[in-house]
Amino acid sequence: MLISKKEIEVRYAETDQMGVVYHANYLVWMELGRTQLIKDLGFSYAEMEQDGIISPVIDIQASYKKPLRYGDYATIHTWIESYDGFRVVYGYKILTPNQEEALLGTSSHVCVKKDNFKPIIIRKKYPEWHEAYENAKKQGE
Predict the structure, then answer these.
(1) CATH, range 4-138
(2) What backbone phi and psi angles, to 5 degrees, belong to 61?
């Protein structure tokens, strides 16, 4: 499978009173990883939104393993965990500077029309995305 990588530097504002990254910021980083994967596949969420289509999160799972702190560099690994032409589940592994797991997680998404939230079938509306997602899942098998 294709695994996208994005490195980020932990900013002071992302930490809590204990000096570690506040848990909700990992969700933002998951989004950064997901957006990077989409770019690596040659697409853009912004273009999809211009078509009146959005991709809300319908489920999210996160397991926190090791803390990250201000000034650390984290690496977000993102891949397509599963895809059926309608629903996409992205997988995430966020690593510490020592390559230890800071977070393991998934997020599930569907695509909907922005004006009424009516679901669309990705493989029909965006056949090029469908093909790229299928290929990304198979890559490296």
Answers:
(1) 3.10.129.10
(2) -130, 140
Residues 79 and 136 sit within 8 Å (Cβ to Cβ): yes
Judge contact between 119 and 126, C-beta under 8 A: no
Q: How far apart are CA 137 and CA 36, in angstroms?
A: 16
Q: State the Cα–Cα distance between residues 57 and 41, nearest whole angstrom.
A: 20
Q: Is the dihedral of CA 121, 125, 131, 132 positive or negative?
A: negative
pLDDT > 90: percent of the chain: 95
Average pLDDT over residues 109-115: 97
Active-site position among 16, 51, 59, 84 = 16
pLDDT of residue 138: 84
pLDDT, residue 44, reads 93
- Is 16 tagged catalytic? yes
Say whether pLDDT at 127 is over 70: yes
Q: Where are the domains of the chain?
A: 4-138
Distance in angstroms between the alpha carbons of the first and the last residue of the chain: 7
